Amino acid sequence: MIKNLIIIMITAVLVDNVVLSQFKGICPFLGVSKKIKNSLGMGLAVIFVMVCATLVTYPVYKFLLIPLEVDYLKTIAFILVIALFVQIVEIILKKMIPPLYKALGIYLPLITTNCAVLGVTISNIDHQYTLVQSLVNAFGTGLAFTLALLLFSGVRSKIEYADIPETFKGVPATLIAAAIVSLSFMGFSGLFA
Amino acid sequence: MSNSIKPKEKNQPSYFKEFSKGIIKENPTLVSLLGMCPTLAITNLASNAIGMGLATTFVLVCSNFVLSLLKNAIPKTVRLPCFIVIIAGFVTVVELLMKSYIPSLYSALGIFLPLITVNCIILGRAEAFASKNKVIPSILDGLGMGIGFTLALFAMGSIREIIGSGQWFGLQVLPKSVDNMMIFIMPAGGFFVLGCIIALVNKIANKKPPKEIGCSGCPHFSSCTMIENEENKSDCSKTAKEAN
User: Mean pLDDT over all residues of chain B?
Assistant: First the structure.
């Protein structure tokens, strides 16, 4: 049981990294990874929303969609639940914990349409995980996202000062740097044969 | 932005312009840099790339059509959830159709089929075009953007499949004696090929490369730039303090 959870965790963080090998959440990966501080904020907000979204969507699927035999509506149901949830979290944080809202609030609206969040809730169902496994997977995926953003923001701060051909400046150079970071993560792919 | 200006005279050329702008001039993937996730993820085979492109085009045309009809009925404050639900509905239609008619493509696209819902091209076009324009221009805009997206995906898929496995649509193209560069069909190759294609587009268009990831069509553009501005502001105040 524990071993299984650890395997899910390590798979999510290293072997099958959500950004670098599954290509989910590329927009914030390229958009918000310029500074380490922003990457950390975005990463923490994503971990929080992923775990909570899993906590909400799992019961919705198991106890609402399955009994009503409308499990094919899960895409609509999940995106609605996530959008609603993010909105509620934003309101609650704003009223109750202003310092946390100040730190994370700005990233929250970006997360609604982050495909990593919808992706993790759907893939939990597709893999037929239990609730505990789903939560571990969600946490691991969030951690993987944060790790990728943090690592990449370090790489990016170096690119800023590099002398690159004119045509490659900006996004192309960023993408090629991402290719190299992704290459390094391929080293983990044989971890669980 | 030029696309928010309504065509004044309803003649053929302006309709054609709405259609054609998405294919080259404002190509959603290579120029506006939207919808990067599917662009990178399922372009390891040219056939998958086309399947994904067409599925997205279908959703884009349908959602642009419905949203342009409903533009006055949806309140401004809750427009994003409304847009997302309508888009998710069409995505489910595509999902069910593909599952029953093209099951091989359905399993190849996997999770990226439901993730069309959060593809920023669709939400971006809904926000920037369909919610401000009439029905026919919206449909043409969706069609053009969809075809532009499909072409970009097709180009990427072809490059990656030919170099990575020596095949094109499953047919052997390169001679067997040429070693395949497997890296191109792996995740790292996706980033690399996309980077090179965007650089090539910049070179051909002979313009300055986009400094930022092109979020202008994204519904969260304002909050994203807010992060940047916030940071600049704090940086400025810090330096000001230090100066004092």
Answer: 79
